[in-house]
Write a structure and sequence with these properties.
The complex is a heterodimer. Chain A is of the alpha/beta class. Chain A has a 5-stranded parallel sheet. Chain A has a two-stranded parallel sheet with strand order 5-6. The relative contact order of chain A is 0.19. Chain B is 5% helix and 65% strand. Chain B is built from 2 helices and 18 strands. The chains are: A alpha/beta, B mainly beta. At the A-B interface, helix 1, strand 1, helix 5, strand 7 and helix 6 of A face helix 1, strand 2, strand 4, strand 5 and strand 6 of B. Strand 1 of chain A pairs parallel with strand 4 of chain B, so a sheet runs across the interface.
């Protein structure tokens, strides 16, 4: 009885469970200008809002999105902006103190521009375990880089996603979503990096027609599409 | 402070039952898997881990009081997330039982071997209209009949009133009828009336077993929701061919007004035992939105004892015109129960 006695007060009592179709989240990493120029108008066509994961030191670079574009997407169109380190540093390649300072400054930069960062994407999905407690105090949600089934209740601190790769047809993403429906998954995150780049050296460029076809598919299915923080909160009932 | 007081009082209240032998149990299930999807070019192997730990007390009676509970956790490696899976505290007098309950409630309990080797649907126990039901229950049992009335709900405004009537003959059949009214459907923010039948039937005891569930939800026009109905069907047949082999077939059909509007699922599996080892080939077809997903799996499972096993599987799956996905996995299913502790 002792172990029951000790553990009961920590239990989540009487929580509700919900059976619903999976919520879809579209994330956009690394502030490529085509996210604003190509993906954003298509997202608007379908009434969808997405999540940008940005490197705040890189914002404003001539070949990347500007602060004005990022803040416009969040403050005027309801997108979410999440942290992604200052310059896309891979966290387990940094000294711990430097990594901590990096993450804090990155979040501060977002807050200083009037944004409300609630989610963080690990560059290349890597993070030393010692950083998790600090990272999860700063952010509600942490997205990695592996694709796996996410059921209810979600582990907000270890979310997976499917990153679109150059050369994929829309069918690859559609089938990923259908697998999720067949599998009773609660959340499916599809990630994009850049659009309409005709350069084979980029492994993650999505043509606009393919992107539109994916969005039309989710739209025709009637699936709910939300920014990451809203999706996680809705699924978790918080 | 509040938590400390709660700990203290629960501890004090638990002392009187220390002297009683409790039917405690603990379970561990985990699945480590990795897949390579030929259609997802440019991607590395994906690695996934699922685990679920559960401990509890099986139904336990002391004088007129009945008690059962289970607590579990799953998939949270960097924080504690315990959940009260179920609790039942009942008072029995003659053929009547009055009880307080918190448990998952729904329809479509799934099959003997579900879509995943040992873990599926996250925490959810039922495929259809799964909800947390915190309820008061009045139950009457007499001979081969059992009736109950439940009133309760949860914090998501899902107030529920349910009547059920069951008739059964041990090792022969059990048929149960449900009629439920919920103030709010799981998906639509609208009231719903659910009628359901569960039937287990053993035409040849020990050899042939049939199981069927049918559930119909009627949703009236309410706010922006159009009046409509939903249908859920689930069936399974299992035949024990000999002492060491069995074959099963299962099917599920779901029709509703949100994605996926129609879902069909078919499964066939064979099981061959050699002493402590079982080999289970299995094929599944899921038709979702007109697209067909085929999954073929070969599972080998070694039993350390009847409630502890280690399994290895390979799965080949694909949509009709799509390159396949290859999945390999290791599954563990370990348990200890009252008999393990006491040797009973």
């Amino acid at each position: 009885m002792l172990w029951i006695t000790l553990l009961l007060p920590g239990c989540k009592f009487f929580s509700a469970t919900q059976s619903k179709a999976p919520v879809i989240v579209f994330t956009f990493d690394d502030q490529h200008p085509s996210i604003y120029d190509s993906a954003f108008p298509i997202m608007r066509e379908f009434g969808y809002r997405g999540t940008n994961f940005v490197n705040t030191n890189a914002l404003g670079h001539p070949s990347l999105m500007s602060w004005a574009q990022i803040t416009e997407l969040e403050l005027e169109y309801g997108w979410e902006t999440g942290g992604h380190t200052l310059n896309h540093e891979v966290l387990n390649q940094l000294d711990l103190e430097i990594a901590i300072a990096n993450i804090k400054q990155d979040k501060q930069n977002l807050s200083d521009h009037g944004l409300n960062p609630r989610s963080f994407a690990l560059p290349r999905g890597q993070c030393p375990i010692q950083l998790y407690s600090m990272l999860t105090q700063l952010y509600q949600n942490v997205r990695g880089s592996s694709d796996f089934a996410m059921h209810h209740p979600l582990n907000r601190k270890a979310l997976g996603y499917l990153a679109y790769q150059s050369g994929w047809s829309a069918e690859v993403v559609k089938h990923r979503i259908l697998r999720g429906i067949a599998n009773d998954e609660a959340l499916i995150i599809i990630g994009f990096h850049r659009f309409d780049i005709d350069d084979d050296s980029y492994a993650d460029s999505c043509p606009s027609p393919t992107f539109r076809e994916i969005l039309r598919f989710t739209h025709d299915l009637g699936l709910e599409v939300l920014p990451l923080a809203e999706a996680v909160s809705q699924i978790s009932g918080t | 402070m509040m938590r400390n007081w709660l700990l203290f009082w629960v501890f004090c209240l638990s002392i009187p039952v220390y002297a009683i032998d409790l039917p405690v149990y603990a379970k561990w299930q985990s699945l480590h898997s990795s897949y390579y999807d030929e259609a997802q070019t440019g991607k590395e192997l994906s690695w996934d881990e699922l685990y679920r730990a559960e401990f509890g007390i099986d139904s336990f009676r002391y004088k007129n009081t009945v008690f059962a509970m289970a607590v579990d956790t799953q998939q949270f490696f960097n924080e504690s997330h315990l959940r009260l899976k179920s609790i039942h505290i009942g008072y029995v007098r003659d053929d009547w039982q009055f009880s307080a309950n918190s448990r998952e409630h729904g329809y479509g309990r799934g099959f003997g071997m579900d879509s995943h080797p040992i873990l599926s649907r996250g925490f959810e126990q039922y495929h259809y209209q799964n909800m947390r039901l915190n309820s008061l229950e009045l139950q009457y049992s007499k001979n081969r009949w059992q009736g109950s009335l439940k009133l309760g709900g949860n914090v998501h405004n899902q107030a529920s009133a349910m009547m059920s009537l069951a008739t059964f003959q041990p090792e022969d059949y059990r048929v149960e009828f449900f009629q439920e009214f919920r103030a709010m459907d799981n998906h639509w923010r609208t009231p719903v009336l659910i009628s359901a039948i569960n039937a287990d039937y053993f035409p040849v005891p020990g050899k042939l077993w049939l199981y069927n569930t049918i559930a119909v939800s009627v949703l009236p026009e309410y706010d922006s929701t159009q009046a409509h109905q939903e249908l859920y069907l689930e069936s399974e047949v299992s035949y024990q061919a000999g002492q060491s082999s069995s074959i099963s077939a299962a099917a599920r059909y779901q029709s509703k007004e949100y994605a996926p509007k129609k879902l069909q699922f078919y499964q066939i599996r064979y099981r061959q035992n050699w002493q402590d080892f079982a080999l289970i080939p299995l094929s599944e077809l899921t038709i979702v939105q007109g697209e067909r997903l085929w999954q073929h799996r070969l599972l080998g499972r070694y039993y350390l004892d009847p409630i502890k096993s280690i399994g290895l599987f390979y799965e080949y799956s694909h949509f009709d015109a799509q390159a396949p996905r290859h999945t390999v996995g290791l599954e563990l299913d370990f348990a200890v129960d009252y008999a393990s502790f006491t040797g009973l």
